[in-house]
Amino acid sequence: MKLLTRRQSAAAAPTGRAGLAPEDRAAFLRLVALLLQYPDAGLLAARDALSRAAAALPASSAREALVAFTAWYAECDPMPLARTYVETFDLRRKSSLYLTYYLHGDTRRRGMALLTLKQRYRVAGLTPPDGELPDFLPVVCEFAALTGPSTGEAPLRQHRKGLELIRTALQEACSPYAHVLDALCEMLPDLSESERAAVADLALAGPPAEDVGLAPYGPPLNEMEVRP
Fold this sequence. Notes:
Blueprint: E1 5-6, H1 22-35, H2 41-45, H3 47-55, H4 61-75, H5 78-90, H6 100-104, H7 108-123, E2 126-127, H8 137-147, H9 149-152, H10 154-158, H11 160-172, H12 178-186, H13 193-205
Antiparallel strand pairs: 1-2
Helix pairs in contact: 1-8, 3-4, 4-12, 11-12, 11-13
């Protein structure tokens, strides 16, 4: 379940937004990182602990959203839960958890963005996971939890429009996972009017396209593949 490993001590985290203590903010982001991973045996066994972690967060609308989600998560049978995850995030590009896709599509710029993000992790003394792209939202949230609001949450702020697109897609699909994106977006700066207009345009037009000479960077699963 752990996505990033630390090679050295990171600098102390700066104070979080909205009066939330850094340790509470880190706990929130770590919980989001776990809830957005595939529900493997480890996460299934930890569902009660995840529910308690959500309930222990300071009172806020973000906390209430995570409490609502973990209530559903704890009661859902394992097979339907796994199937819901795959159908929601692996088979629908509109709700893919790979953030650079929304900003760059499958273009050369995306490759550079992925490399930059991986280097950001290494500079912070963190080792990116093998077999997973660095823009996978749970990885990005864990980085934010480990390194603090100023440095750690910069990628989340950079991809705020992509997060809103995922959130909107989940809401339109009536997915329980919309609660998790609601909570995450609640903890980040709100979109400006111009950003909301850009999100609406991107939702209609889709990400940039540049097919010549490129292999796509994800999502890594297609409709013929299944998770173990």
